[in-house]
Amino acid sequence: MAVHNADIAAAFEEIADLLELGDENPFRIRAYRNAARVVGGLSLDLAARLAEGGELPKLPGIGEDLSAKIGEIAATGTCKLLEKLRGRFPAGITELLRLPGIGPKRVRALHEARIDSLEDLRRAARAGQLPALPGFGEKTAQRIQDAAQAQLGAARRFKLAVAAQYAEPLAKHVDGVVAGSYRRMKETVGDLDFLVVSDDPEKATARLIGYPEVREVLARGTTRSSVRLASGIQADLRVVPPTSFGAALHYFTGSKAHNIAVRKLGIARGLKINEYGVWRGERRIAGETEQSVYAAVGLPYIEPELRENQGELEAARVGALPRLVRLDDLRGDLHAHTRATDGRASAREMALAAKAAGLQYLAITDHSRRLAMARGLDSRRLEKQMDEIDDLNGELSGIALLKGIEVDILEDGALDLPDSILRKLDLVVAAVHSGFKLSRARQTERILAALDNPCVHVLAHPSGRLIGERQPYDVDMLAVMRKARERGLALELNAHPDRLDLNEVHCRMAKDEGVPVAIASDAHGTDGFGVLRYGVGQARRGWLEKKDVLNARPLAELRRWLARASAKAKR
DNA sequence: GCCGTTTTCGGCCCGACTGTTTTCAGTCG
């Protein structure tokens, strides 16, 4: 059973939770949480590296002890400390920590009253036992009871595109900007953070509370308030004076780990950084803009998508920040469907919509025959579509159509259409749409075999995940990347907000491995190109620059790349 | 548990809101 970085991170999180329940040194607990975050966000597979006899890289905040624990968990799936801590508390008690309004102190109080699970908690709440516990009053007890019953423990996160539908109108309503993980373009958003500049906080707060979608006011203070919207999403509002705008925006954009790291840099320079500014003693020396905050600690501006304390501060210090790809860098789109299969528009309509979206080329890549549900194309229908595209290219100006296919990778790694027809296309995108449950070894072997087919140019949605719905299939992504590199192929970053696949970690891996990434809309209708902005957001979180993105190249250059990939295959 | 152009020991980000705790702890972001 392979141990993944996510498993190591989960073990460290659980250790942190259990140490917290044991009232251990908070800085030791923080060290474990930090290690969980660092390991979880790493593109290098640590267990695989160790299994090959390699060394662990030097990781920030991970010293001798945590390195040894990584080795232990990589080898055995667990570690002695974790097992010892698990023995100290009943199984499942950490789920209580996930409830809003409950932290380690109250979980301990519950534990002492023999309340050790969500089920125990519901029973005790119904029996009216909670208010009598130390540190609990009527209101706390009621809040916890509501949360336990509503299963709020499984903190709900919203896909970025869904959050956008709530965030943007509300930002307009309160005349503020959205900060938080939304601004960092994280693929899912837990709550919405709004920042309003005003010398009249009362008025700004009243506007939030008066928003028609507000269902519940969770907190209401002089500068900060929180509400829950009808959709279930929580919105937090902060009001600051104009002189503090930059410091506040920086603070509320996060991430928390990035902010802590920046504040530490401040401390080293004798500065205090909070949401009101950068302070030397009583004097504010910066804070009107985010740039001024970074400048105060000797750094250039850092883009929000990079602010995860995953190396961006070190890169900033040595002038090595990436110049992140932008939406307007995209010249074309390499994955779109038409009515011929499961799309909703004709090739002509899609071409015009792509042109209107500012693109210069669009690959038509309908499904292949195996995907019967989508009326996938066989060779005969594909030939017909190719003729249609030739005609359209003769007729349309300002947009070029590429003849392509999204061909299924069958379970044995063969492609769903014969090479004889695939060779006639401009672009072949290969994709897995079945057999998600294959073992890691078989899945990897299957995909590597498909990438060895000389006709293939791009691997679509490489992990197969659907955010919040379907786990990625188990595949050795590093092996896939190395094969793509060897063959001169690209990997797709499918920009559909349900997919965002490659994820940010794999984007960074692709960059490190020198594999170009195609940011593709997978549009099924003329309104399908708007999602490219989410793909670009994810690419930016993965440190990708214009030069790393295949479809940021002009058409002539793309054609040369496609020809080279094909020529390489023929050798 | 980590870490060092003040330190190998003694620090470790900072502030707001709530509820119950009569002066502040717990939780959250």
Q: In the CATH hierarchy, what is the class of the largest domain?
A: Alpha Beta
Query: What is the CA–CA distance across the termini?
Result: 38 Å
What share of residues are in beta strands?
5-15%
Total separate domains: 4
- Please give the share of residues in helix: 40-55%
> What is the CA-atom radius of gyration, in angstroms?
26 Å
What structural class do you assign from the helix and strand content?
alpha/beta
For this structure, the CATH topology of the largest domain is TIM Barrel
**Total helical elements:** 23
**Tertiary shape:** globular
Notes on the structure:
The chain is α/β, with parallel strands linked by helices and 571 residues long. It is globular, with a radius of gyration of 26 Å. It folds into four domains: 5-149, DNA polymerase, domain 1, CATH 1.10.150; 158-240, Beta Polymerase, domain 2 (2-Layer Sandwich), CATH 3.30.460; 243-317, Beta Polymerase, domain 3, CATH 3.30.210; 327-570, Metal-dependent hydrolases (TIM Barrel), CATH 3.20.20. The protein starts with a helix and ends with a helix. The strands form four sheets. The protein has a seven-stranded parallel β-sheet with strand order 11-12-13-14-15-16-17. The chain has 23 helices and 17 strands. Helices cover 43% and strands 14% of the residues. The structure holds one DNA strand of 29 nucleotides.
